[in-house]
Amino acid sequence: MSDYMFALESHLDAAQNRTVAEIQRIATEAGITVWLAGGAMRDMLRGAPIRDLDFTVERDALKVGRALAQGTQGEIVGEDSLKRGVELELPGGIRASVSNARTEKYAKPGGKPQIGAATIHEDLSRRDFTINAIALCLNRGAKGLLVDPTNGQADLLNRELRTTNSMAFYDDPSRVFRLFRFKHVLGFEIAPRTQSQLDNAVLGEYLNPNPAALAADLRALSSCEGAIGAIEDLDRLGLLKLLSPALTGAKLNTAGLARFEKQTHAVFPGGTELGWLAFLIVLLEKLTPKERAAALTALALPAAELKTVQKLEAAAKKREALLKSPKIHKPSQVWEALKDADTAEVLLVAYESAARVVQDRIKAYYQKYLPTAQEVTEEQVVAAGHKPGTPKFEKAYQALVVTRLNARPKKVEPEPEPPPPPPMSMGRGRPARAS
């Protein structure tokens, strides 16, 4: 095993390792070479947790992606017929993508590219930044072979953001969103030549990315510390006006975003993207209803997310009223009040509520009550004589959770103090003789 494979397996959790093993099996049986690339390699090489698994194959990405979804009992959530790639959500909360190695040629900035088949070296060289242009072979014959045609490892070491080629912003202006996200979230500096490319894009007036492309970076920013700096840089270049001409100056809610970030990390110390729609509401908070509606349209959210965000504020007010109830006295009652709540809804409650009891109950739920409830297993309910899938089973499960949550912790009896040593004589160190 190469050092890179050892490092990869050390950074993956159990579910991610199973996913890698499954795609290795699929690729081997199909006679296809598969590479782990992009953000997964960037994060592994800088010693950070790996969030998403980005796989690249040199042919049949759609076939491999569908087989991976079937083999892991996952779900395909997006399919790009032009670039022939799929987005997956897999068990264990894993997000993955499988795409073909390809070239992209653009007739105009941000236009529809002409796609061509490519080798892994060509594919990496057409990507956005060098730190994202690294791949690791997962096939048995060349397992652990690292490919780094643009020297991204050096830029990771130097903490520098550098485009892979001089046409990066011309081809895809939305790359500027990622540039500022990486700058503030990773704490990297923009390389002088890349800064010049950005300045030229602004002067040439072709830095007009599709605002819908901003949604993915706002989602990623919502879980990170440093989001405010990225938002301010985007505002400085006028890129937030792509969402709404009003989203600048006094209507840019940086103070609210700072408070939201603080509340989010108080509840989820590592951050979470599950609350990104609440982040979006805070970002647009100072806009008028008409301006906000236009911004949401520009982001081109999926129908389910658009429906959620439109109802989120009303749902948060109801949830806050429930959490304020003086009838809540037990841990199980806090659990009942929050167990079916959407994460974005809860984070919006934490942001908007000034009630200390609400803040305390939210923190207690995620940090104490939810982990305790998850200790109750289906096996315990089955052992109590209930059949899975029946109403009685679910009722028995709920009862076990309530009992576990409300159980008082056992008192830890203090250890008895050791007896004092016998008194010593003043003579030669012998014990004093009892009188």
Task: Write a structural description.
With 435 residues, this protein is of the alpha+beta class. Among the domains are: 1-155, Beta Polymerase, domain 2 (2-Layer Sandwich); 378-406, no CATH class. Helices cover 50% and strands 11% of the residues. The protein contains 20 helices and 11 strands. The strands form 3 sheets. The protein has a 7-stranded mixed sheet with strand order 3-4-5-2-1-8-9. Helix 2 (14-30) packs across helix 4 (61-72). It starts with a helix and ends in a 29-residue tail after the last helix.
Q: Which sequence of strands runs across the widest sheet?
A: 3-4-5-2-1-8-9
Under the CATH scheme, the architecture of the domain at 1-155 is 2-Layer Sandwich
The level-1 CATH class of the domain at 1-155? Alpha Beta
Query: Strand percentage, roughly?
Result: 5-15%
Net shape: globular
Structural class assignment: alpha+beta
Runs in which pLDDT lies below 50 for 5 or more consecutive residues are 431-435
The CATH superfamily of the domain at 1-155 bears the name Beta Polymerase, domain 2
What does the largest sheet look like?
7 strands, mixed
CATH fold description of the domain at 1-155: Beta Polymerase, domain 2
The total count of strands amounts to 11
Topology:
Layout: H1 3-11, H2 14-30, E1 34-37, H3 39-45, E2 52-57, H4 61-72, E3 75-80, E4 85-90, E5 94-100, E6 102-105, E7 114-117, H5 120-125, E8 135-137, E9 146-147, H6 152-158, E10 160-161, H7 168-171, H8 175-185, E11 189-190, H9 192-203, H10 214-221, H11 227-236, H12 254-267, H13 276-283, H14 289-299, H15 303-324, H16 331-338, H17 343-352, H18 356-373, H19 378-383, H20 391-406
Parallel strand pairs: 2-5, 10-11
Antiparallel strand pairs: 1-2, 1-8, 3-4, 4-5, 6-7, 8-9
Helix pairs in contact: 2-4, 8-10, 8-11, 10-13, 11-12, 12-17, 13-15, 13-17, 15-17, 16-18
